[in-house]
Each structure stands twice: as C-alpha cells, then as structure tokens.
Write a structure and sequence with these properties.
The chain is an alpha/beta fold. It has 23 helices and 32 strands. The longest helix is centred in the C-terminal third of the chain and has 27 residues.
Length: 771
C-alpha cells in the first residue's frame, strides 16, 4: 500500500547539491513526489510504501552529497494514497519562503578538481574563468543575503545566466544544478586591473603576475575579502609593504601553488598535510625547513610560517604565470580594522599602500578572513576559525534546546555566537572591537547572522565580566533593543567551558593560561587552575601568584615594566635600577626618568594592577633574555621566546619546586632563577627552553594536585598560552604520566575566538539547571 509521507531534513543541506541527490534517488527507486528548500530545511514529499520510505531515508543518509551534513530527518507518514495522480512523477519544485527549522548555511569551499580541470580545458566555456564553481565548491556564506539559499537571495542575482550556464543550472543531473554561484566568462563576475582607473589588458591575471614578479605590491579581491600580495623572495618589497602598513615585524602568511613547492621552505607532518590540503584550505602554521629560502623579513625571528594553498581559480591562474615559490597573502586592512571588501573603499584605503589593484565586480556580503590552524601535541587548534568553517554550528542539544542567546565574546580577537534550537553558531573572525570600524562591522555581522538563522528575538545576551569592554557596553545596548537580560561570564570560565563542550565532559580541571582576563576578584587573571561543571559552576583553585603591573596595560606593550614589578621587593630598588640602567636602558621610552618613575609607582602602590597572567610572565622572560624589547603585535614576545627555545639542543631540564600544600606557582622564583642562569652565561636558547618548562611543569603539577583532591580524572588546557607547542606537550606529558586524561582544543580556538561559544554554554547550562 502507498502512503503519503513528508520528510523534513535538517543540517547542511542547502547549497551542497542535496536536492539533485534526492531527485536522483527518487528516480532510481521510481518514487513520485517532490523536493524543495523550505527556509532552513529541505522538505521531501513521497508517495511510497512504508518499507520504501524507510529505505529512501537510509539510502539518503548513506549517499548524501560530500559537503552535506544531516543532523535530523523527521518522517511524517500520513494517510494511504487515494489519488495516485497527485504526484505523477518526482520533481524539484520552487523553494518556499517559509522559514522552518535551524539554518545551517554552508561555508565557502575551495575550488574542486573538476572545476579546476574545466578552467584548463580550452573547449569548455569555463576556460580561464577565475570564478568557476559548482555544488561541490565555491562561495556560499560570503555571498548569501537571505534564506533559503537560492540564487535570488545571493549577490549572484545580479548576473543573468547565459544559455550554457542556464542548461547546467536547470539540469537535475548536472553537478551545477542550482549551484547558485554558477557563471562563466560570458555571464558572470569579471576581474579587472586598476591603477588610477581601469587598465585595459586582455588577461588581467597574467599581467598581475608579471607586475608582482617586477616587485609590485597588489591588493587582490577574493571571495570573502581582499589580500595584500607581493613576492616572498625579495626583502626590499616586503620591507616596503611593512613600512606602508606599519607592521614592522608581524609575520605575513604566504600562499604557495602546491606541497612540492612548500617543501622548499617548510616541513609538515601527515596530519598537517591533511589540514592544508583539505577542502577548507586554511592557513596552517608550519615549521621552517633547514633549507628555508624565502626572505628573512617574511616571518622574522620565528621558527614557523603560515602557509596556505590556492583555493580559488584566480589563485591557481596567478601561479601559472610565475616562477615565484609563494606570494605574501595577508588580509588587506590597516592593523585592527576589518578587512576591506567594497571596491570603492579598497581603492580609497589602500591607494597609498599598493601599486596596483586586481578587483572584481561581485559583491561580498559576509567578509570572512582566512582561517588559521596550528598543531600542538599532534592535535590541531584554531588560531582563527573563519573561511571554510563558518557558519557551521556546534551541537548544543545536550546544553539547551529552548533559548535564543547572543553572546559577544571578549574585546580582542572577537567572535560572537548565536545559540538557537540547540545549535551554537560561532561567527567569522571579527577582531579588535576597540576600533570603531571593527565594532560597526560586528554590529552588521550580528544582524546578518541573526537574519540567516531566523533569530527574531533573544532571551539573553552574554558578554565578558570586564565592565569597560566595548562588547560589554554593546551587550547593554542590545539588551535595550531586544528586551533581553544581560549575563556576564568570567573570561576564563568561558574559556574552560568551550573546552568542556568540545569534549562532552560533565566536569573537569582546567589550566587557563593567557594574557588577560578580568577576574572575579577584580584582578587580572591569566594563569588559573579552575574546576568547572555542566551546571555552569566554576571555582578557582590555584595558579600563578599575582604580580604588580606598573602602569597597568602599559606592561603589555612594554614588558620591561613587568620585569621591574616582579623584581620589586625581591631585590632592592637600587639593585633594580642598576640592572635596568646597565642592561635594559634602551628598553624604556623615557630612559632613566621612566625607571625612577616606575619605582616610585611601586613604592606608593600607585596605578598598579595585579595580574596572574602567564602571558605577562612569558613576555617578561623574553625581555630579560633580550629576545624582544617591546611588543609590536599580540603575542610577539612569547612567540619569539618559543622560537628561540626551539633551537635548544639541551633538553636536560630541572623541576621547579612547589610547596606540597600549595596550589600556587611563585613566578618571582622563576624570574630570579632566570637571572641566575643569565649571570652564569647559560646559552639563551637553553634558558628559554628551561623557563618554559618550569611554567608548564608548575601548572601541570598544581592541576594534578587539584584533580586528586576533587577526584576528577580529566585535566584540560585552554587559553592563548597553549598555542605554544613546547608548553602544551610538556603539560600533556606530565598529566598523562600521572594517569590523568589530558584534553585540549581540537575543533575550537584555544585563544579568545572560542570565548563567545563558552559564554553561550555557561548561560545555556545555568538556565537549564535553574528551570
């Protein structure tokens, strides 16, 4: 007997060739009915036996498109069929504008091999077309304006299809069936060369490669934003770009045509190879090889380099016209501001920085920086989760299925998150919201993602505990708009909660180590041992002792101030001054006068902030060892310390002793022991290695004591310090040697990019446990 049945499919099922797959399966099984997009889900209507309905579901689960993810298929078997002519065949019908279910918009995906082959096929109408794509690849998130994901709801609506593309787009058996970015040279977006007006050349991409090889600097607009591009083999060109950008030393990422070329200047493991060649094509932080042959000022004083492979047709075409092993590919924005996406602004803002522009006329709706991944202890972790991954949600069905929650993260390296219907959607990288333009970008991105997820109202808005963060102020502004209460979540509680979510644990001990986080006691935390659970509860158990920051945030830019604060009270003021004048005088912007002023501040306890930050301690050590003078970019001092430590050949380390009854690590003792090693003329790289070990070992030992005391079997690590490979591996080794489970971030950011997700988890848990 035939029955009418409706199937509602939730997941990543739009923009990935899902409806053609359903169509082909129905044809193969000789079933009648239809399939259509319905807002945020796919609706399937079938006339079939109960056995065939179940078989259809199972076959769909087994043979779903490669880019799709099915989270749920709801089946509603209705009355027996009494009108078999209602659906005489199976069709793909027009999408419904009704918004149902949870939206899962697919991320942008790198160009597939089939499209790449067509770009090189002279007989194909996609020959040399840089925007070639299909249902298996190309832009999604960056071009969508509304749902459902149909061409009319994307920026591609401005381009009428030519007859050949129309045939592909309307043929259910073609891989471009309803591939919304479908286009070719005859009907799609076009690239053009620009310098004081459009430059008329037959092949703008070839000309760009020629000019790049001639040491010119370019702004090249891509699918989710714009890159600043130049050669990687010429120090003068890189130096010119650095001077114009004001980025004196921060490393530039590079793009190389293939892994064979990459082997000339970096090494990579099997796992790193899988990541860098994945369909997301993220920047992957790799170790420089012994034969490193790129310019030294590309990634100065670091042992690593961020590398990615081409992910658009345009990128592949560039490398066809050059012998350069790689190009600099760094986000086109002034430091702290959002990446540029609008042609007019690109030209206006970058005209004094670049020599030429390679632009295109397709609008970018949702800017999306390149994702960045680094492996630590053989596990990947996101430094930046953005292109290729966003806006795929995390599963929060065990946390909260009922609330709509918007969380705004910290203030730097910001993402925001939307919790809705048991899914947590973490935004693309937003950045430094202290910058007005970035804060405005965040507000627009919130509106866009709320629209795409059909979030009309909010139950709660979450933010950091810090009262002065721009995101805290924004939370209260949005609270008035949506009539939703604000819940503030302590920074490191949010860090640790994101780890708890990722590993699906009930309770854990965490080491939370980073640069700064407003503590529950009003001090600046950053080296804590926490207990937390899925009730949304946490407790600080121990960690690094507090140290004075003379001048507060000035210590982050000038860590020599941090050194003086740590030494204060341990040695006399006269001895501190003598050490500073004799060894570090040029580390102070105002020389001896500043040294005297800092000592007076410490004497009077004036403008002194207390911090337990591990990041500040690592910075102080980097300064003491004269690896760095001051910080020019986030994490610089500690990153350079790690790179120097990586050169050490002496792995014979000693342990730092911690009082048996103490859960605190005395970092003054570490600084004093560092000074002693310097005085004993121990090689700098060996000191760097030893001191990193002391911090890792000390934190690991305290976490083990805490876990033993509370009978917890799992210890995790989170926070920006755990981008440091050596510290992560040391903590892991000690924890596992003591028979505890070690966990770290693998699919989220150890740094602040996961704070908003942790905030959403805390609110979800707390409200579930109070209901």
């Amino acid at each position: 007997m035939l029955y009418n049945a409706q199937l509602f499919v939730e997941g990543i099922v739009q923009g990935v060739g899902f409806r053609p797959t359903v169509y082909r399966l129905a044809q193969d099984m000789k079933l009648n009915g239809y399939v259509r997009n319905m807002g945020n889900i796919v609706e399937i209507q079938l006339q079939a036996t109960k056995e065939d309905i179940i078989k259809f579901r199972d076959e769909l689960l087994e043979n779903k498109p490669i880019l799709s993810e099915i989270n749920n298929i709801k089946i509603d078997i209705q009355d027996p069929v009494n009108n078999s002519n209602k659906y005489p065949d199976f069709k793909i019908i027009e999408s419904s504008i009704k918004n149902e279910g949870n939206a899962i918009i697919p991320p942008d995906i790198s160009i597939c091999s089939k499209c790449l082959n067509q770009i090189h096929d002279k007989a194909d109408h996609h020959y040399q077309y840089p925007f070639t794509s299909c249902t298996d690849c190309g832009p999604r998130f960056t071009i969508i304006e509304n749902i459902p994901y149909d061409r009319k709801n994307t920026t591609m609506k401005e381009y009428d299809l030519c007859s050949k593309c129309e045939d592909e787009y309307t043929n259910p058996l073609d891989r471009r069936y309803h591939a919304e970015a479908t286009s070719c040279n005859n009907c799609g977006p076009q690239v053009y060369l620009y310098k004081n007006g459009k430059i008329d050349v037959s092949n703008p991409i070839k000309k760009t490669a020629e000019l790049l090889d001639d040491n010119k600097i370019f702004a090249i607009k891509g699918i989710g934003g714009t890159h600043l591009v130049c050669k990687t083999t010429d120090s003068d060109t890189i130096g010119r770009l650095r001077k114009k950008l004001g980025r004196k030393t921060q490393a530039f990422a590079v793009m190389t045509p293939d892994l064979k070329t990459a082997k000339q200047f970096v090494t990579y493991s099997f796992e790193e190879e899988k990541t860098i060649t994945s369909i997301s094509k993220p920047i992957t932080i790799l170790k420089k090889s012994k034969d490193y042959n790129l310019a030294p000022n590309l990634s100065p004083k670091l042992h690593t380099l961020g590398v990615m492979l081409p992910y658009t047709g345009l990128h592949y075409q560039l490398f066809e016209y050059t012998n350069e092993p790689a190009y600099v590919m760094t986000s086109a924005n002034m430091p702290g501001n959002p990446m540029l996406i609008d042609n007019e602004n690109i030209i206006k803002e970058l005209n004094d920085i670049v020599d030429y522009f390679l632009l295109h006329d397709r609008k970018i709706v949702n800017r999306c920086d390149d994702s960045v991944i680094r492996y630590r202890a053989n596990k990947k972790g996101f430094i930046r989760r953005s292109r290729g991954y966003v806006p795929q949600p995390y599963d929060f069905t065990k946390i909260n299925n009922d609330l709509n929650v918007l969380t705004l993260g910290p203030e730097l390296d910001v993402t925001f998150s939307i919790l809705k219907g048991g899914k947590c959607y973490v935004s693309q990288h937003i950045g430094n919201t202290r910058k007005y333009k970035t804060l405005q970008y965040m507000k627009q991105a919130i509106e866009n993602l709320m629209n795409l997820t059909c979030t009309k109202q909010l139950d709660y808005i979450g933010c950091d505990l810090h009262p002065e963060f721009t995101t805290t102020k924004l939370a209260y502004e949005l609270s008035n708009k949506y009539n939703a209460p604000v819940i503030q979540v302590q920074h490191h509680h949010a860090h640790a909660s994101s780890l708890l979510v990722e590993h699906d644990k009930e309770e854990i001990i965490t080491i939370t180590a980073d640069g700064v986080g407003y503590g529950a006691d009003g001090n600046i935390w950053g080296g804590e041992i926490l207990y937390l659970n899925t009730k949304g509860e946490y407790k600080k158990l121990g960690g690094l002792i507090n140290q004075p920051m003379a001048g507060g945030d000035l210590c982050t830019e000038y860590p020599i101030r941090m050194v003086m604060g740590i030494l204060y009270g341990e040695i006399s003021n006269d001895n501190i001054k003598e050490l500073m004048v004799n060894e570090y005088l040029d580390y102070f912007k105002h020389g001896k006068q500043e040294i005297d002023l800092i000592l007076k501040q410490l004497d009077k306890n004036f403008n002194i902030t207390l911090t337990s930050s591990a990041g500040r301690i690592l910075d102080a050590i980097s300064i003491l060892l004269k690896i760095s003078k001051h910080r020019e970019y986030e994490g610089e001092c500690s990153m350079k310390l790690e790179s120097v430590a990586a050169q050490s050949k002496n792995k014979n380390v000693t342990n730092i002793n911690i009082n048996e009854n103490s859960l605190n690590l005395d970092t003054t003792k570490i600084i004093m022991k560092t000074l002693k090693l310097i005085q004993d003329n121990v090689p700098t790289e060996d000191i760097a290695y030893q001191v990193q070990y002391w911090i890792a070992q000390g934190l690991a030992d305290i976490s083990i004591k805490s876990a033993k005391k509370l009978n917890i079997d799992t210890i995790g690590v989170t926070g920006g310090v755990f981008y440091n490979e050596m510290i992560t591996e040391t903590v892991k080794k000690i924890i596992e040697e003591n028979n505890y489970n070690f966990i770290q971030h693998e699919n989220m950011c150890p740094g602040d990019g996961s704070i908003s997700l942790g905030q959403a988890a805390v609110i979800g848990w707390q409200k579930n446990n109070r209901s």
